[in-house]
Amino acid sequence: MGMFSWTEKSPAVLQGGGVIGPDERLPWAQTGLMGIQHVIAMFGSTVLAPILMGFDPNLAVLMSGIGTLIFFLITGGKVPSYLGSSFAFIGVVIAATAYAGKGANANIGVALGGIIACGAVYTLVGVLVQVIGTNWIERFMPPVVTGAVVAIIGLNLAAIPVKNMAANNFEAWMQALTFVSVALVAVFTRGMLQRLLILIGLIVASILYGVFTNVLGMGKPIDLSGVANAAWFGIPTFHAPVFSANAMLLIVPVVIILVAENLGHVKAVTAMTGKNLDQYMGRAFIGDGVATMVSGAAGGTGVTTYAENIGVMAATRIYSTAVFFVAALLAVLLGFSPKFGALIQAIPLPVMGGVSIVVFGLIAVAGAKIWVDNKVDFSDTKNLIVAAITLILGTGEFTLKFGEFALGGIGTATFGAIILYALLNLQRKD
């Protein structure tokens, strides 16, 4: 079956809790709605990351769509994934460019050269995996390791909505109202409505937030002036790269984190779909690497497979690559429309925080599901120790520095789990 050929499934499949696999799709109308949901899931992070680095958010959205299309083509449409702005680049980009944290980054070209170099190394890693195969991955990444890695992706992100997306008690209550809204949609609705739980919950919570603030005056009101003033169509700001040896040496090591994130993504999707996607691991790395190079060449951020979208898949059980193809096309259109970008940014931060709590939690549970499905034996001290240490390293944002490069959170947890398992596995069996 070709990459643009999917077996169409009736929406009735959803009524009985059915699953839509990577090579299947719902009718295009429903597929489009799911695509919108995935765009919303990635939008907050994809916009936030470039802002923190002084990049153009609209260009970042555009390149996330183009990057996802590149990934889709290179993987043959076999791996459901959305590529968005990677947070792994933020620290090293700020260090390489001496960015002050406000406005446009005056040294963006230097950062872009480093991002392109990182993408090139990432691509070479993918080629190596493609040539050697994935058996070595299975040896070094058994279920106890992959489950822990996937879990910490969600746990590592937990502090973002809890600590940074609610400035006061009212906003904390609005976060709670948001995730309760999503939960009610998830449990008490059926069919397509249930599968759109993130989108529907977000809309309901935004309306309630508007009532409490704009009508009752209980908090910061929703401001739609940015939407009204934004143009329907606009060309993002492109930038040319500058290749600086110092910047490249600083930024290239981020490839370690990108490999870890992509590996965890493929493992998570494999666990959720029941389809072994390891054979596409090399192509997934190549796709992500090429997408990062293309994004950097245009002035965009480095990209990576998005945990937020894993969470949406876990919640909806719709893994169709057609959804991501549609989402990518929508992102490209949004990249050329400042008005739509302004609309998404107008969503109240506490509401986005409440949705993020749900999505990040689902990612963490997906990791635990890997343990359950593979019957990981935690009476085995080796498994227990590896999982215990990995979870705390990732959740606590444990950081190791190598000169100017810092490996923290997900990176230390991932490679710590791999190395620790290999070390403990040296024990001779009686």
**What average pLDDT do the residues reach?**
84
Strand adjacency order, main sheet = 1-2
- Strand percentage lies at under 5%
Give the biggest beta sheet: 2 strands, parallel
Tally of DSSP β-strands: 6
* Distance linking N and C termini: 48 Å
Helix content class: 55-70%
Reading the helices and strands in chain order gives EHEHHEHHHHHHHHHHHHEHHHHHEEH
Regions with little confidence, pLDDT below 50 for 5+ residues: none
Overall form = globular
Number of helices: 21
Look at the helices and sheets and give the structural class: mainly alpha
Radius of gyration: 21 Å
Structural description of this entry:
The chain starts with 6 loop residues before the first strand and ends in a 6-residue tail after the last helix. The chain has a domain of 300 residues. Helix 1 links the parallel strand 1 and strand 2. The protein has 21 helices and 6 strands. The protein is mostly helical and 430 residues long. The strands form 3 sheets. Strands 1-2 form a two-stranded parallel ribbon. Helix 7 runs parallel beside helix 20 and helix 16 crosses helix 19.
Short description:
The chain is 67% helix and 4% strand.
